[in-house]
Automatic annotation (TrEMBL):
It comes from the Eukaryota. One of its GO terms (molecular function) is protein serine/threonine kinase activity. Residues 148-189 form the RIO-type domain. Keywords: ATP-binding, Kinase, Nucleotide-binding, Serine/threonine-protein kinase, Transferase. It catalyses: L-threonyl-[protein] + ATP = O-phospho-L-threonyl-[protein] + ADP + H(+); L-seryl-[protein] + ATP = O-phospho-L-seryl-[protein] + ADP + H(+). This is non-specific serine/threonine protein kinase. Its EC number is 2.7.11.1.
Length: 284
């Protein structure tokens, strides 16, 4: 049995509780006699009145996570919300286990306990991976859109449809992407060849092989046809058109070098229509 101690800061606008002690609720994190202590960041960005807030925290003592590591704590403060976290941890630990720390954040398990008033609570602990995308997908630089498509394609390859795919569920840190929020997934037999051919004419939906990815490419990401907002100059575009997801997917270092090389092309000013209201700039 693993125990999670969550400590809140002394200067805390949220509530008076200073600490929760929770216990592992999934077999994958039930090592006998281990404990895990995290301290919530006092500047964390979250809605304190929410029944499902997300807080950033630092690990100070753990047997299965490096001290100093930054994690995201996804809470359920009502009994009826706990089942969503139970479904989500199952997805992280089973269907997407091989994609942890590559396509989805590393998962440190689900922990359950009770509030001081007796209400059951739960906390899903995930590797912290920055903030969510803060503008519509089609306003992002092409290389970022392609990286997101590559990542969502990997999830399809594991036999899952995300079920709630949106900008708020895509995190970006140091130029790399992680996908989150897996409480609405559905089984999926993906027949996509995963060759998106950005900049070319939209392929036939039937020929593409996956209607979900086809719609994502066409309507949300707008990678086909005429250059869209955020498109690089022609010389850079021709380099990107040669960019093939499959061949690069295992080589993050090469991807980052490519991204750095392309940096000057991604500094176009973005019109106001490409900004979200600040209200949805939460971590999740
Ligand atoms: Zn698919």
């Amino acid at each position: 049995m693993t125990t999670l101690h969550v400590k809140f800061p002394r200067e805390w606008p949220g509530w008076t509780t200073k600490e929760y002690t929770l216990r592992s609720a999934h077999p994958s994190c039930s090592k006998e006699g281990t404990s895990f202590t995290v301290i919530v960041d006092s500047e964390t960005n979250s809605d304190y009145s929410s029944d499902s807030p997300v807080f950033r925290a630092s690990v100070v003592n753990s047997s299965n996570c490096q001290s100093g590591a930054v994690v995201a704590l996804k809470f359920a403060f009502r009994g009826d919300l706990i089942s969503y976290l139970e479904e989500e941890v199952e997805v992280y630990e089973v269907a997407l286990r091989s994609l942890q720390a590559k396509t989805v954040p590393r998962c440190y398990g689900l922990y359950t306990g009770h509030r001081e008033d007796g209400e059951p609570i739960a906390c899903l602990v995930l590797e912290y991976w920055g903030e969510c995308i803060d503008k519509p997908f089609h306003c992002l630089p092409l290389n970022v859109r392609m990286r997101i498509l590559e990542q969502i394609g990997e999830i399809h390859r594991q036999g899952l449809i995300h079920g709630d795919f949106a900008e708020r569920n895509v995190l970006e840190l140091d130029g790399d992407i992680r996908i989150i929020d897996f409480d609405q997934t559905r089984p999926h037999d993906c027949q996509c060849r995963m060759d998106f051919r950005p900049g070319e004419a939209a392929p036939d939906e039937q020929d593409f092989g996956c209607s979900h990815l086809w719609k994502l490419c066409k309507s949300d990401m707008r990678i086909w046809g005429q250059p869209s907002i955020g498109e690089p100059p022609q010389g850079v575009l021709s380099l990107k058109v040669r960019y093939r997801l499959r061949s690069r997917s295992k080589d993050i270092q090469t991807y980052r070098l490519l991204q750095r090389d392309l940096q000057p092309s991604t500094t176009h000013s973005i019109p106001n229509s490409c900004s979200f209201p600040s209200a949805i700039n939460d971590i999740h």
